[in-house]
Amino acid sequence: MALKLTESEFEIERDPDKCISCQVCVRQCSNDVHDFDSDDDIIISDSQKCVGCHRCESMCPTGALKIKEREAQFKTNANWSAHHLHNLYKQADAGGVMLTGMGSDKPYPIYWDHILFNASQVTNPSIDPLREPMEIKTFIGKKSQELKFDNTGEEEKGFSIKLNTRLSPQLELSTPIMFSAMSYGSISFNACRSLAAASSGFGTYYNTGEGGLHRDLYKYAGNTIVQVASGRFGVDADYLNRGAAVEIKIGQGAKPGIGGHLPGEKVTRDISNTRMIPQGTDAISPAPHHDIYSIEDLSQLIHALKEATRWKKPVGVKVSAVHNIAPIASGIVRAGADFVTIDGLRGGTGAAPQAIRDNVGIPIELAVASVDERLREEGIRHRASILIAGSIRSSSDVIKAIALGADAVYIGTAALIVMGCHLCQKCYTGKCNWGIATQDPYLTKRLNPEIGTRRLLNLLRAWSLEIKEMLGGAGINAIESLRGNREHLRGVSISDRELSILGIKHAGEPW
Amino acid sequence: MDSCKTQLYKCEPKNTQEYFSRFRIPSGCAIFGIMDEAGTAFSGSSVIDGISLMRERSNGLGGGFAAYGIYPQYEDDWAFHILYDDKEAKSQAEDELGKSFKVLFSEEIPTRKVIGVEDPPILYRYFLKSASSLPSRKDNVNGADGEARSRTREEDYIVDFVMRVNRGITGAYIISSGKNMGIFKGVGYPEDIGNFFRLEQYRGHLWTSHGRFPTNSVGWWGGAHPFGLLDWSVVHNGEISSYGTNKRFVSGFGYECTLSTDTEVITYLFDLIARKQKVDLELIHMILAAPLWDEIERMPEDIKQAARALRILYGSALLNGPFSIIVGSNEFMYALNDRIKLRPMTAARKDDRLYVASEEAPLRLVCPSPDYVWRPGGGEPVIGRIKRAGKKEGHKAGAAVKQQDKGK
Amino acid sequence: MKRIYINEEYCLGCRLCEIYCQVKHSKSKKMIKAFKKELSDVLPRVLVEEIGYNSFAIQCRHCADAPCVDACISGAMVKNENTGVVTCDEEKCVGCWSCIMVCPYGVIKRDLSSRKIASKCDLCEDEDIPVCVKNCPNEALKFGEIKDGGLTGSKKDVWSK
Questions:
Q1: Residue B367: active-site member
Q2: Is the confidence metric ipTM above 0.90 for this complex?
Q3: What is the pLDDT of residues B310-361, one digit of tens each?
Q4: Torsions phi, psi of C139, nearest 5?
Q5: Which of A21, A27, A28 to mutate to test the interface with C (most CBs of C within 10 A)?
Q6: pTM of this structure
């Protein structure tokens, strides 16, 4: 057998003074990195197999382990970085498409970090959210009706009014944050349950992704957005009517232009039932929907889904942020969608070819700015809500996103991190040591939904409080007054061109 | 006021629309309004007295008045007040006017020299009838419906014309564009501006007034309040922190905000919601100063559904940040505070007269023994209406969703 | 009486419960010192049972009607009337192993480090929560009382009603 060119990416440092040979690390590593030698009573670690998930380091009761990324083992080369060498060695050994998981880790500019938010002083008092009302309730759906009222009261009896128009169906969110589409299959059932329970507990929504809706999650159906992806997994009339809203998935940010892939080994009986496919078969979602080859086909599907749900649920469309996102979004809105979800370059995934994840798409900040601008220019902004996803890392990202024009945000990676993910990017192996991106029952036990739910609720609560603080600081007490309010944003250290695409002024420029 | 004090920037004329539009100027200030609901005209001197009592609230960099019912001899014709920086701008504007209107009469607005009011621009007024070349539609202008439609078309046309001139002709700015009303404003204390324009000689049934305290020294006459479009006039004390959102909202309906003052966007919101979308005046506070979700939950079912729907659909029209505004039109005077009452406003009634001001003192000065005085709550409108013969007495102040206590 | 309840669905089989139990009952009470210097002397009182991917940790159930208390010939095994905890008085224990033979759960072990003593869970009476429960990384052990169909006295957070 030829010499293996691939080398370990990680170094495992074990402090012998602290290691008590309790073997927790041996038991917890699904990649068999650690091994206990009973003769010498020590633990030996094979760093070649380590994926850098930090499970052993977290579990070690004495803190004896340190997992470090192996530094410059090659001669320093700004062009042929270690990353490129590793990839070439791997491809030489295997000859296939290189897969990866989670969102792109390439150093493309992060515009959130170049945008600053405003605060009010002197001419306009800031508001203290702990003492005064601060409203972040958000409604997702079409808002283009003309309201008709009947004046029912006589003037002496007092004012009375009756609404004669029925509003389009709306989703009512207690905070402008929802959980992104992550399918049962790409993540474990316990992870899905945590997301569902947290959404229900906080008053927001989560998305089934293309995995269908598991029977045990029916009780959370009122907080579920069901997805209709190109593979139509799990889609039937019951599924559509159970959810609170329907989302047609055309693309996702991590892999624009291609469909999902769940290997046959991961299609257990449970997944087979939920997705309505035979057990053990690969679940391959085709790249396009084979009944949507043009915008009028999309319009047809949207209306078919509205008919199937008796026009009682919002029906929206999810697309990746690509170069032409503004006219695409405009077309989607005109096709009748109640909301448009845009997933940016840095969106996460359970499995995607590395080349596509890292090189296809555009950052969500630019996408949302240009879509909001285009829809407003065409006078159709009120016909659909804009939801965005693709690496929202903190509450300040949420604030900036809404000020750029989004109605609400979806978080995926942040939710998984809160449940334990350490971004080792090996989700596609199905060996997630944290019990998230796996179906192995030994591993899925590791995510206790009680703990997962609690952590997600804490995340939502913490971010909501921070959002309220920032709103109050800017003298705003209702989040609808921040939407599209670019006057409250300033850019810093970015070019004029980027400023103009984002539609914001540079820091230092007053109103 | 040496505008070239600092050498950091080149000295450039600061009294132009162009310079003015570069800066967003939050409004400090004073507001005052008087309406006679019976339609009886009265002189502008009481308003001038009232606003002068609030001199402390201004800094002399802007003052203005809106007056209704002052041109009874041209009751059904458009009355345009236009300011010009120079004769060139005037001749360009008059060309445009000639193309679209029949100019019945025009003259320089009569003024007198007043210390404190320096370097006035050319101030002209025109009385116009729409030209027969106005775009007319296929449908016949018969019946009330047809009449209303043609009136709306004409109004849209005026709005369009005003925006074109204000954006397109440098040095010309149409200050007011209504019928039987006019806006008089400039750089100076409001009482001085009132004297300058000889407002004591005019008689109208509704007067509003404003004194400014802008936070940078921009001296452009067109930037003072009231801001006017058609027969709307808006005087405004406050700063709209939702300005960016509101601006984007109205721009989707064709209103371009060019002036970077919040007052402009309030006027456009009113024109859009009250005139074009015909939302009842009683409901407008539920859009501009929407009740809190908690309060909506506690409302009786019918009103709750209405309030909810208005808030969901018009979220981008919510005015956030502190404000107190008085909106005038030929039919009504409408005053409103932001929903958490971050600016002062007091109102009073005596016989047919309704008074609204930033403070109680000017009310007492002009009306020593009112029937009742009250301070409207946040988001609670004060509405004065012209009483028509045979119609029941106009609304007691404020929509009754929140009951105010009278005589406090 | 507050007891330890087992949630085997979420037991990882990591055996951290055993480790913390050992530390608690060691002389030094410090993990590294206990393991490096005292290991052979310290027995864990909780045991992890494992088959395939199923596992759970079990310790003395502090039975209402404890067979070990009846079987004890020296009176070392005692059930405290107030707290309900069953403890072994090490001074009195003679190492006859009768308790081990009758225990239906098999949670008593022989401690041969010095004298022969029966070793079992004492519910960490000087702690507010037994250390196995406190340190379980996946909350597979819970400590509390069953009341009104639910477990009270367990971990409270801002979400519980």
A1: no
A2: no
A3: 999 999 999 998 999 999 999 999 999 999 888 999 999 999 999 999 999 9
A4: 50, 45
A5: A27
A6: 0.89
